[in-house]
């Protein structure tokens, strides 16, 4: 299986896949920023040639997203699906997912997804993050470790919710909103906003 994107997050994805029963030697990393094909110090084969991807997809068309950044997640998804790949979504053994829909997102170790939650494709629910009842998350979002979205929260596509941030019940965020680590969001923010603090307020970054 291909892990799309090289970097620290790809190592965490590798570990999750191994706990799900995948053989480490069958996990290959694709990244279009890599200059050569080689094994790195973590024994992950990295490559960048599209011809190699197509050849691998003939045997196993699945890939997972190995980056957290929403914009790179979307870019890699579009790239690999255009070459015939099919997104494989991770549900960690320790993740608690109460929705019955087929997963199109990653729910990593000890994450929580409550009842009647809707999550768009390519989104990352990272370690110990929680998304509570009746919340809605757009596509290719990054919910960082320990972030909590309480009931009825709605966020648009490609939002980044920082580690340990809390979104209070009913909060609505537009697309591409960035919430700083540890922030407490008590009100709505429009698309493109960047907020931090307690309570969260707009900042220039």
From TrEMBL:
Keyword tags: Acyltransferase, Transferase
InterPro entries on file: Hexapep, PglD_N, Trans_hexapeptide_repeat, Trimer_LpxA-like_sf
Record-linked PANTHER family: 2,3,4,5-TETRAHYDROPYRIDINE-2,6-DICARBOXYLATE N-ACETYLTRANSFERASE, ACETYLTRANSFERASE
Domain of life: Bacteria
Family statement drawn from the similarity comment of this UniProt entry: Belongs to the transferase hexapeptide repeat family.
GO molecular-function terms, A-Z: acyltransferase activity
Residues annotated as domain PglD N-terminal: 2-80
Pfam family, one: Hexapep
Protein name: Sugar O-acyltransferase, sialic acid O-acetyltransferase NeuD family
């Amino acid at each position: 299986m291909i892990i799309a994107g090289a970097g620290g997050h790809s190592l965490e994805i590798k570990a999750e896949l191994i706990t799900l029963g995948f053989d480490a030697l069958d996990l290959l990393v694709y990244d279009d920023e890599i200059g050569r094909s080689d094994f790195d110090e973590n024994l992950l084969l990295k490559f960048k040639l599209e011809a190699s991807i197509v050849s691998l997809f003939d045997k196993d068309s699945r890939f997972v997203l190995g980056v957290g950044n929403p914009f790179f997640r979307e870019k890699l998804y579009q790239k690999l699906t255009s070459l015939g790949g099919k997104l494989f979504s991770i549900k960690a053994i320790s993740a608690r997912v109460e929705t019955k829909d087929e997963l199109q997102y990653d729910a990593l170790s000890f994450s929580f997804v409550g009842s009647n939650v809707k999550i768009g494709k390519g989104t990352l629910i990272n370690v110990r993050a929680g998304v509570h009842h009746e919340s809605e998350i757009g596509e290719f979002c990054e919910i960082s470790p320990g972030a909590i979205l309480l009931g009825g929260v709605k966020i648009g596509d490609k939002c980044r919710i920082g580690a340990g941030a809390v979104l209070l019940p009913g909060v609505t965020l537009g697309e591409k909103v960035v919430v700083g680590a540890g922030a407490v969001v008590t009100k709505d923010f429009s698309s493109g906003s960047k907020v931090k603090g307690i309570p969260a307020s707009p900042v220039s970054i």
